[in-house]
Write a structure and sequence with these properties.
The structure is a single chain. About 40% of the residues lie in helices and about 15% in strands. It is α/β, with parallel strands linked by helices. The chain has a 5-stranded parallel sheet. Helix 4 (about 110-115) links the parallel strand 3 and strand 4 (about 120-125). Helix 1 crosses helix 11 (about 280-300) and helix 2 crosses helix 11. The relative contact order is 0.17.
Length: about 300
Amino acid sequence: MRNLLAIRYLDAAEITAILDSARQYRAAVRERKSTVVDSPLGVGLLFFEDSTRTRVSFEQAAAHLGHRTVNFSGSSSSMRKGETLRDTIQTLRYEGLDAVVVRHPAAGSCNLAAHEFGGPVINAGDGAHEHPTQALGDALTILDRKGTIEGLRVAIIGDVLHSRVARSNAWLLSKLGAEVWLCGPRTLMPTNASRLPGKVTNEMPEAVDGADVVMCLRLQRERMASGLVGSVGEYTRHYQVNRRTLRRCSPDAIVMHPGPMNRGVEIDDATADGPASVIADQVRNSVYVRMAALSWCFAEGGAA
Ligand code: ASP
């Protein structure tokens, strides 16, 4: 058994193994073959932040594998009564859960959970740190369309400062050989952006010129101290992904968004719903990579 806490901790072979396994699960589910494991386990879904697609896709993934899920949300758990994350995780351990999937607003909280819990922990998004299964689903979607990640030019656009999706994708795509560009307004780029794998720019044309993949990030108003963006209109004028953006990209470029989208802000309707958009595939693939992630974490002796 092992944890899935961050793409940064994985090597290219581990990433490829999880993606191969996701493809096999996808084929099996589509052919209506059984994917139920011999010994179903209890998986806690511990969400201290709002989520629709991530929580539901983990539930779907666990159901395909025959695992039992137990849902906890921050608003209904004893943490509302002042219990610490450490005590909550230990309680789940004593209650006999086999694994927990954790989403939490604090970066690093999943590492703490992994330290306290006896079984595997999967990070479902911890603050602005990482969201590894999002990046794995995105990689599967890119591979479906492009056949390879090696040598692709990928532009990640927007609120990099607050985005765990940007971090996990930057790590994954660069580990698999893509040229990654991170682009956003100066106030929405981390001060240590140059330590992330990828090239950094504040100029949208520089990032998207000839891009094979354009990845939009959500403007994260809930994490944003006021004043980081002059106005939404100004942000949209410079950083919205739209038809004008696509004219600069490679002719067969694809457009991605992790959701939930602020339509008309970081992406316009025509692009979100247009032929270059692979946003629906990202959501579909997220179920299969989460099946693969659960199996990878539960694998005997750490073998994939
Ligand atoms: N759903 C993704 C996440 O939880 C992206 C976002 O919310 O901006 O990180």
